[in-house]
Amino acid sequence: xxxxxxxxxxxxxxxxxxxxxxxxxxxxxxxxxxxxxxxxxxxxxxxxxxxxxxxxxxxxxxxxxxxxxxxxxxxxxxxxxxxxxxxxxxxxxxxxxxxxxxxxxxxxxxxxxxxxxxxxxxxxxxxxxxxxxxxxxxxxxxxxxxxxxxxxxxxxxxxxxxxxxxxxxxxxxxxxxxxxxxxxxxxxxxxxxxxxxxxxxxxxxxxxxxxxxxxxxxxxxxxxxxxxxxxxxxxxxxxxxxxxxxxxxxxxxxxxxxxxxxxxxxxxxxxxxxxxxxxxxxxxxxxxxxxxxxxxxxxxxxxxxxxxxxxxxxxxxxxxxxxxxxxxxxxxxxxxxxxxxxxxxxxxxxxxxxxxxxxxxxxxxxxxxxxxxxxxxxxxxxxxxxxxxxxxxxxxxxxxxxxxxxxxxxxxxxxxxxxxxxxxxxxxxxxxxxxxxxxxxxxxxxxxxxxxxxxxxxxxxxxxxxxxxxxxxxxxxxxxxxxxxxxxxxxxxxxxxxxxxxxxxxxxxxxxxx
Amino acid sequence: xxxxxxxxxxxxxxxxxxxxxxxxxxxxxxxxxxxxxxxxxxxxxxxxxxxxxxxxxxxxxxxxxxxxxxxxxxxxxxxxxxxxxxxxxxxxxxxxxxxxxxxxxxxxxxxxxxxxxxxxxxxxxxxxxxxxxxxxxxxxxxxxxxxxxxxxxxxxxxxxxxxxxxxxxxxxxxxxxxxxxxxxxxxxxxxxxxxxxxxxxxxxxxxxxxxxxxxxxxxxxxxxxxxxxxxxxxxxxxxxxxxxxxxxxxxxxxxxxxxxxxxxxxxxxxxxxxxxxxxxxxxxxxxxxxxxxxxxxxxxxxxxxxxxxxxxxxxxxxxxxxxxxxxxxxxxxxxxxxxxxxxxxxxxxxxxxxxxxxxxxxxxxxxxxxxxxxxxxxxxxxxxxxxxxxxxxxxxxxxxxxxxxxxxxxxxxxxxxxxxxxxxxxxxxxxxxxxxxxxxxxxxxxxxxxxxxxxxxxxxxxxxxxxxxxxxxxxxxxxxxxxxxxxxxxxxxxxxxxxxxxxxxxxxxxxxxx
Lengths: 514, 514
What we know:
Two copies of one chain form a homodimer.
Chain A: H1 8-16, E1 30-31, H2 40-57, E2 59-60, H3 64-71, E3 76-78, E4 81-83, H4 86-95, E5 100-102, E6 111-113, E7 117-118, E8 128-131, E9 136-139, H5 142-153, E10 160-162, H6 173-187, E11 191-194, H7 199-213, H8 216-221, E12 225-229, H9 240-252, E13 256-260, H10 272-293, E14 299-303, H11 320-336, E15 340-343, H12 354-369, E16 374-376, E17 381-382, E18 387-388, H13 390-408, H14 414-417, H15 419-427, H16 437-442, H17 458-463, H18 469-483, H19 491-500
Parallel strand pairs in A: 8-18, 10-11, 11-12, 12-13, 13-14, 14-15, 15-16
Antiparallel strand pairs in A: 1-7, 2-4, 3-4, 5-6, 8-9, 17-18
Helix pairs in contact in A: 2-10, 4-10, 5-6, 6-7, 7-9, 10-11, 11-12, 12-13, 13-18
């Protein structure tokens, strides 16, 4: 391409000017639904099966409280299982919370889960950190969790921070749960997803969140942390601890991710269609319980069926079947018009290599265009969720930006079709569109530009010493971790928390004086 | 996951048994169309604009022959441009070749371009080879082209080999064109796409292909090479040389790729919608000419609008906008029910790294699910088409397999929904599906397994010395190039060709005695 006369500096200046949020080509909550892996008939068949499972198979291991509140609204206990007649489930679906808002500590990060609006979140329970600098795996720590929260806070296309890794340098599970929530909310003002192994851990977590919110009433107005509850151990078995947490969360005004994480061929049916049906049945069972406790309590239907590599039984989060499963679950969620979360973006690779990029990209592009309201695990996860990679969050942010851009699609109208512009260029013998006013106008609204992605020519690449993507991400990570210590939680509040709870990391780790 | 009793050896044995082609989870010609970036109204608006462009703007620089045959059927010459009234275009669309077959030298590789059936091809005119072993770029050679053809012959998910690189060690353009076709057809028995800079080069290429086919009549029965013709220099200007090649190809029974390769904001409109409209207008203009020469002559509508990074004017083949553009073009093609080719899978990265994987993956997943009949440039291309990487073809084959698997989607029926299986597992307290007959049955039909993708656990990965994806691909490439010399063209035919044409590489380069 030849030199263009003028315009270049104007373009650079325009590029630098920040766009209003509603003009930016990508943002949280872009609507998906262009990708529909299921035909209308398929949806009906899956729906019928879902209700059959709930009615005829039901769940093992319901707690006393679950049995009490659910039988009160029509559930049936039979052969040690709690079963949900269709009317009971439909009633819960009728009463439940739609158009759910996940609040950020900063309101600019509020996420509106409705329709086919798409958002990306981290997520996971990695026990290891993938360290691409040394090509090594090591145990994950409290510091890692805080660090990943801070990095996520800087990533425009990761809209929420759900706990990514298990804090393995804290042995006591109560202390671990408290510090998980603490490190996450200290690191980002985006909505946080946390996890608790027992109900009383969650009660204490809530007490801490009340302090941060400035009182329980303030917390209830804008609950900025949700809890991930694996309320089932698939297939179709409730878990006592998670049901306990659900009860505490509902009563405490905390949004719940009702999480069904079966694995096809192992804990979920081997055919993809069956895995979708089971996941939806399991999540709707959770929804009945939530709404039996309190109608309209906020809950996300977390249909996360995973894929097994049936040769070995190992999970394959980066498989194409994962993309199909998650997208089909999202499509069912759009059909039900319920706030739906799923998991996509995981890689089976151990490091952010070609495979890591490919698996993250096709799974997230599919899940986003399918209209999943919240796509968890979408950044940083390797070894099929066993590890998290902090550096990867930064390059994943580019991939998620692309997925969102694809999801936005193209606006088609007389202006964008630009017949008059074309006519002027062709009939005026201008030969190209470089000088057309429209070209300058749309360069920021129609296109996105990666933060790390390399678009250099081979010559520029050589001249610049062949920059390596991952090295650029490492440098940026170091810069963030050295300099970025969010202060949305005041020192005073922090000291109050530290007086009442056992916080593992010293204040200095959060960039604060002791 | 715990140990499973038995079954493991049976699974391994089953996995090793080859599946019949119609049972394999992915294959050439799987139907897409699940991803629809354009709404029905959008399609109508684009369609209207396409006809307006053809009718009111038309093409500059038509050749005498083009003017002669096109005005004979109703085209109008005005102000030095040839314009196509709607009826003329619709007539060509009516008469043209649908359900086009691209023949392989081996019939098992025949590609049926119809409906929304999806196929992947290489393609490009790279002038450099990306060498990931030495992290270097070098000029592309005749040997590289033969090597990439051979590698492609071994890649199940790359269904056609279109010329990937320019043979830079041959200075004379006639010799280059002959050797391009020769090296490609020697390297693979899949359908080949070639390129010629002048009509008489194509005449000679055809003569060579007649020899290979065993006579002109045999060639015409199963033309196994198509020609890529950039019949326009966008916007809306015909090119004399390519129109010359079109004429020779139509008369010689060779399928033509009518290629419109504008670049948004430069040679195509800056808005995506406008770029799609211009690309379709340009390809339909070519289609009118083809059918004016001979109604029903095989042609692929090659809508390849590319993306410019408007900050620099450089092409960005790996951008998300590329995925949208190509998918929208494919959707228009499905609407017109015309055989449609587009370009996706290119990366802006210089090497097969994380970015390379990501860009290849989201662009190909979108293009495939949109139902593009032929997705060119889908493997091996880096630096936005300036380079080709032979090793990458092998790992790209995994990515394309995933895109095809996603495109196949899920079958939903009573068997795959598996209610009875679920009931048996849950009510029978079996706890998992590992022992279910269905699990073993579907492990090869419902799932695909990557050739190179790493699914090891972190422990296995460490024990195996942390295998590197790219190193595995390099080893496999070396194995193929050392041992695999296709012999579908006999020595006798080869000697006949060498008697009549100037073949650059010695017979020994093709694994044959001198």
